Amino acid sequence: MKINKPAAELNIQNFLNNEWTKASGKPLEVTSPYFGNVVGSITESTSADLDKVVKSATEAQKDWAAKPIKERTQVMFNLREVLLNDIEKISEVVSLENGKTFAESRAGIMKGIEVLEFAIGIQNLDLGGKLEVSRGVFCEYRRKPVGVVANITPFNFPAMVPMWTLPIAIVLGNSYIWKPSEKTPLTSYYIAEAFKKAGLPAGVLSVVQGGKEIVEAILDHKGINAVGFVGSSKVAQLVYERGAKNGKRTLALGGAKNHIILLPDANEELTGKGISDSFTGCAGQRCMAASVLLAVGDCDAHISKIKERAESMELGNTMGAIITKEQVEFLNQAIEKAVSEGATLVLDGRNPKVSTEYEGGYWLGPTILDNVKPEMEAATRELFGPVLSIIRCKSISDAIKIENNNPYGNACSVFTSSGPLAETVISQASAGMIGVNIGVPVPREPFSFGGINYSKFGHGDITGHHSLDFWTDVRKITTKWEKQTDENWMS
Ligand code: NAD
Q: Which mutation among 235, 282, 384 tests ligand 1's pocket best, with the greatest number of atoms within 8 A of CB?
């Protein structure tokens, strides 16, 4: 579907008590990567605005947590229907402000709905347990919501990343303060409206807007008990350290540099599509995108297939735009630098042709660099664009060594037809999410999403089964009612 300029600009402020209320900070424009012009704005929230939001969230949380989980889940059932009804409209806004293709935006919302379905199922999971530990003495554990929680999200998935946490944290009885990226805040209007339409009581979800200042205010606010964060590693580390220093439960997911190990016995068609789609999808702006291809032995035929598929991408139709003009300039310079250091430009995506209506936008076509060396910037730095750096390796152990030396730990995939060789990579790769013949090895619910090493600060995962421990406190209760209890060592 074609992305069109909106008829009117949207101005987004604070979502407080289920209403959009005036924030007191500075205005900030939102620019569309498709057109390169302003399509909306936010007014930044201040710490005084945050005080009001935390007050409302604290009051709302008491009533919300007092409802049985089955009652809270009904709102999530309604939300699923609302989101499916509004999916086209929300996808258009995501594409407009982020630059994704319509199909990618829609897929992101569908993934968000999958997390929502997991949240709907939480009522049937293990939410507590009880055991008679000694005659007449019972030990029990119950999950209790953490209270008021906040979540800070990046530009690259304006709907999906917030939906990783919103339904789970809320259905478990927390109230939730969301701070979207200031680059892509417009989607937050539609998501918050969807929760309201679904019947979420006022105050359970709030939205504040802005950048660094409001994030710091969240991390310093005494009324907020837990903070989730998704973004670059540098900021994730700052957020984790400040949150932890202030005594908050904090989980901060960071950036990535993902490796694919390609073995000559891999199926050529599967490889061509899987690896090309991984580095060109969302114009390379996803934390699970392939970035470094470790080609073991003679993989030339496979690389031709990757190139063939990448070349067929049509900017503005099958491939989206880059978030800002500055990021396009950075990527152009990174490509130039790699070439000057000795890399071979197999496919050059710079200064690409786009249709006239998108000429003002921010574009870079798929770019493939071959003969990259492990120490070059193209092999070590997260570029966050549709650039694939190929490092030629003599053996699978050379490839694994390079993968292991990278500080990040989100994704690593292997393309091969051999089970034992795949197993070697599975057991030796350093990443938290591993794929076999999969270009983007994102676990599907109920399996948890989360990297390790420099891609994550804090313990646990942000979705799936393991997220229950982040969004709840586990309380242990021991009871003795009657005198029937035998005296023993634990009486
Ligand atoms: P970013 O770190 O610039 O921003 C993320 C959030 O932090 C935004 O809401 C922003 O307003 C806020 N922020 C920015 N600078 C800050 C500062 N100095 N102090 C406090 N808050 C600050 O990230 P981005 O550019 O929006 O997103 C891209 C990055 O996110 C990439 O590195 C990508 O790999 C990563 N990412 C990771 C995952 C994951 O699951 N690990 C998922 C999506 C994106």
A: 235
Tell me which residue range forms the domain holding 226: 10-255+451-476
Question: Could you tell me if 146 and 281 lie in one domain?
Answer: no
Nearest ligand 1 atom to the CA of 255 is: 34
Question: In the chain, what's the furthest Cα-to-Cα distance?
Answer: 85
Q: Is residue 445 part of a domain?
A: no
At 318-375, the pLDDT tens digits run 999 999 999 999 999 999 999 999 999 999 999 999 999 999 999 999 999 999 999 9
- The pair of structure tokens assigned to 296 is 């073991």
Q: Are residues 32 and 104 in the same domain?
A: yes
Indicate whether 32 and 168 sit together in one domain. Answer: yes
Same domain, 359 and 219: no
Query: What would the pLDDT profile of 89-127 be if each residue is shown by its tens digit?
Result: 999 999 999 999 999 999 999 999 999 999 999 999 878
Question: How confident is the model over 167-196, as a mean pLDDT?
Answer: 98
Q: Are 146 and 171 in contact (CB under 8 A)?
A: no
Mutate to test the pocket of ligand 1, among 155, 251, 330 (most ligand atoms within 8 A of CB): 155
Question: Which residues does a 6 A CB cutoff place in the pocket of ligand 1?
Answer: 152-157, 161, 179, 181-182, 211-212, 215, 230-232, 235, 238, 253-256, 287, 382, 384, 410, 451, 455
By the 8 A CB rule, do 39 and 97 touch?
yes
pLDDT digits (tens, 9 = 90+) for 401-431: 999 999 999 999 999 999 999 999 999 999 9
- Asked whether residue 422 falls in the same domain as residue 408, the answer is yes
0.85 exceeded by the pTM? yes
Domain count, the chain: 2
282 is catalytic: no
- Tell me the C-alpha distance between 268 and 286, whole Å: 24
Question: From ligand 1's centre to the CA of 154, what distance in Å?
Answer: 4
State percent of the chain over pLDDT 90. 92
b/e for 451-484, b at 16 or more Cβ within 10 A?
bebbbbbbeebbbbebbbebbbeeeeeeeeeeee
- Atom in ligand 1 nearest the alpha carbon of residue 239: 20
Ligand 1 nearest atom to the CA of residue 233, by list position: 32
Q: 107 Cβ partners below 8 Å, 6+ apart?
A: none
Please check whether residues 284 and 221 belong to one and the same domain. Answer: no
| Band (486; pLDDT cuts 50, 70, 90) | low
